[in-house]
Amino acid sequence: MKSNYPRALIHHLGFPARRIGRASLAPLLHQCGHQVDFFDSLEALLCANRVRKSDCLLLSLPSRSAIDEALVPVLRFDSNWPVICISRKVQLATVVAAMKLGAFHFLLETTPPGELMEVLEEAFAHSRKRQENEQRQLDIQARYEQLTNREREVFHLLITGQPTREIATQLQLAIQTVKIHRARVLAKMGAGSAIELLRFAQILHPPGS
Fold first, then answer.
1. Which of the 8 DSSP states describes residue 38?
2. What is the pLDDT of residues 140-180, one digit of tens each?
3. Interacting residues of 158 by C-beta distance below 8 A, sequence separation 6+
4. What's the burial of 18, exposed, middle or buried (CB within 10 Å: 0-12/13-18/19+)?
5. pTM surpassing 0.85?
6. Which residue of 65, 102, 127, 199 has the lowest C-beta tally within 10 Å?
7. Range(s) for CATH 1.10.10.10 in the chain?
8. d(CA 84, CA 2)
9. Do 67 and 97 meet the contact criterion of CB atoms below 8 Å apart?
10. CATH homologous superfamily of domain 9-133?
């Protein structure tokens, strides 16, 4: 089975050795080019993820109490971590509670390997997108930090849509000086227009953040 996301890292906490257990899961994932690490304790899992974050987590939920014992601290550690919950049987209250908390998906232990791999592919895509967004935010933040205090003032006025003349009046600067600052802001931020600066500002400070 070919994966669209080779060499993904999967972490697995407390997964019972049943139909999709450790004995069959590891060869299946290795065959697809992935690495899977098994953990028996939450502490060991979180410690490993401080070193290298996995692309997704398979989390066994043997009971409703496991949500408080494992899922809650896992999502507190990283609310965007794609967590696929696995249970021996469907308990609607458990499924609802897990999904409300932010679990990525919920599967049965008897889920066929093919279906499991499809869900994992979705989780990998989610993880890759998150990583790309995080890197983009870091890149934009690094560019923003290169701006001088005056350039940051111009930046924030530009993204409100104010024209050069109004910015000059507000900052008590000559129009030509504002034009120079504007050009420097665009160059340092790698933007082609004030509209693109606005997009960068939204990435740095998403609405509701």
1. E
2. 999 999 999 999 999 999 999 999 999 999 999 999 999 99
3. 167, 182, 185, 194, 197
4. middle
5. no
6. 65
7. 146-204
8. 20
9. yes
10. Response regulator (3.40.50.2300)
